[in-house]
Amino acid sequence: MNFIRKPFGYEPIITKEDLQKDHKKKVDKASDWKGVLKGIWNLVDEQRFLLVIVLLMVVVSSALALVGPYLIGVIVDDHISKSIFVGLSKIIGVLLFVYLFFSIATYLQSYWMIGISQQTIFRLRTGLFEHLQKLPVSFFDKRQHGELMSRMTNDIENVSQTLNSSFIQVFSSILTLVGTTVVMLLLSPLMTLVTLIIVPFMYFAMRWITKRTSKLFKEQQKAVGELNGMIEETISGQRIVKAFSQEGRMLEEFAIKSERLKRTGFWALTYSGFIPKVMNLLNNTSFTLVAAVGGLLAYYGHVTIGEIVIFTEYSRQFTRPLNDLANQFNTVLSAIAGAERVFAIMDEPIEDDAALDNADYVLKGNVTFEDVTFYYNKDDESPTISNVSFHVDSGKTAALVGATGAGKTTIMQLLARFYEVNGGRILVDGISIDELPRHTLRSQTAFVLQDPFLFEMTVRENIRYGKLNATDEEVLHAAKEANAHDFIMKLPHGYDTILSADGGEISQGQKQLLSIARALIADPAILLLDEATSSIDTVTEMKIQEALERLMEGRTSFVIAHRLNTIRQADLIFVMEAGKLIESGTQDELLQKKGKYYSMLTNSKT
Ligand SMILES: Nc1ncnc2c1ncn2[C@@H]1O[C@H](COP(=O)(O)OP(=O)(O)OP(=O)(O)O)[C@@H](O)[C@H]1O
């Protein structure tokens, strides 16, 4: 497939139907502007006073911008054309003062505005990150991670740029437009008419262009989000991509997405590139009209030369803010689209939490499931977990067995309250888990997964993740207990070796040992363990087994068991099938029963 196209060989990508659809959508979503502005206003928070001062500065500088041309007109009419130079120095002094003060006012307004916008963006970024941390696991299940990352970076950057510059410019442009019109009308309604004759043309030209660009900018941001999503997935899953030799397919998919971004980018920039050109043309036309008609009127004594000078200046001053407004329009539109996407996440409901009454509760680890039913999706025909009931005493080990997809991992995730049950109750020490603050429950529950997640931090920090205030001695002790110390000491910088985000430089078994050390240091009452299925060399496997035995001692443990030995040693065995708990008991009880477990065991032996 050839992905490289001639730079100008693109088909226009907006049809009339698209524009009509888009117009309808805009009408439907008219309130979003208000919502976005309200959201930003809330974020400005305690800097609102400074913002008001900035706005006052804009008023002052816009007024000063009107005084300059007027004074030049006065100089021409009262001094130059009459050759009277008395008092000229005074008026030039005032003019210089006006220009100086104008510069100071514009400098101050942009200096303060940068401070306000950076602080606002800081709040927006931190708020979004904080909100993401509080969202339920189910939120992340449904979304592409790279796309979310794009909201944290690109969209926020767009809002930031608008707040930095566009905000002041838009406000000042509006003030200048209104101010200039008023002053022009007071001076000469006839000349005002000549100056403003160009405005309807500008309006229609702008409408034609922005109708197209606003849709394109939205599409461009969406395409950036999708592309980022794919890049993130491909980089984090690059081993799988390579293992299945999918590089070619990924490249094709990437090229298609990238091509879409290129096409929307091309048209967005092409259309928005018309804006300054069209504006310039209309601007110069207006300038020429004012000079020509003004000259004619002056000839017949209707206006003075000074007034023509004032109006030629004002005609520039009038079209410049229009030009600015037109230019800023796209930036503002793209920022609003970005802000909408950010606020959409902020509006996602966070996990509600229990009152803090039980916050200091120390778990003993008695776990009870009472008729628990759970659906991942409301529309699923049958529940993922249906009517499961069991009890595990504190300190005991329960092995979960069953075919893939039977619901073993789900049982564990429900116990850690990653998802809310749809029916029944889960109790720890007789307390329903929704009466325990999540932090209380999760800080005393630890996961040891097959493929544990390691952070791009030192080995020491990765172990300390289980208990952030652990001392170096505690880290060392946990690593020794987890049989991880020896291999850590062989790493280039020992405990200070920085691991890559997926722990690519250490083996699967070593990752498990680190994850056991992390769980040991957390000292949880309840352990949720997914036994490794991948083949690990016998020495490492023995080390893992030994470390796990130490870890499980005295704690309530749920193990997704793959080895017969683990199952045999468990106090209780739960056999799961299609979300149901079909058998439970000790190894002996289940063997005597000669049911599913018995047949699973005999089948695996044959
Ligand atoms: N986040 C999710 N969203 C929707 N469905 C899910 C989700 N996670 C798991 N499922 C579905 O729920 C069912 C039970 O999955 P679960 O991971 O609990 O099975 P399991 O017994 O642990 O399987 P395995 O031994 O393969 O890990 C499966 O049909 C699975 O497709």
From TrEMBL:
SMART domains: AAA. One of its GO terms (molecular function) is ATP hydrolysis activity. Residues 52-334 form the ABC transmembrane type-1 domain. The chain crosses the membrane at residues 49-72, 84-108, 167-187, 193-210, 281-301. PROSITE patterns: ABC_TM1F, ABC_TRANSPORTER_1, ABC_TRANSPORTER_2. PANTHER family: ATP-BINDING CASSETTE SUB-FAMILY B MEMBER 10, MITOCHONDRIAL (PTHR43394:SF1), ATP-DEPENDENT PERMEASE MDL1, MITOCHONDRIAL (PTHR43394). This is ATP-binding cassette, subfamily B. GO terms for cellular component: plasma membrane.
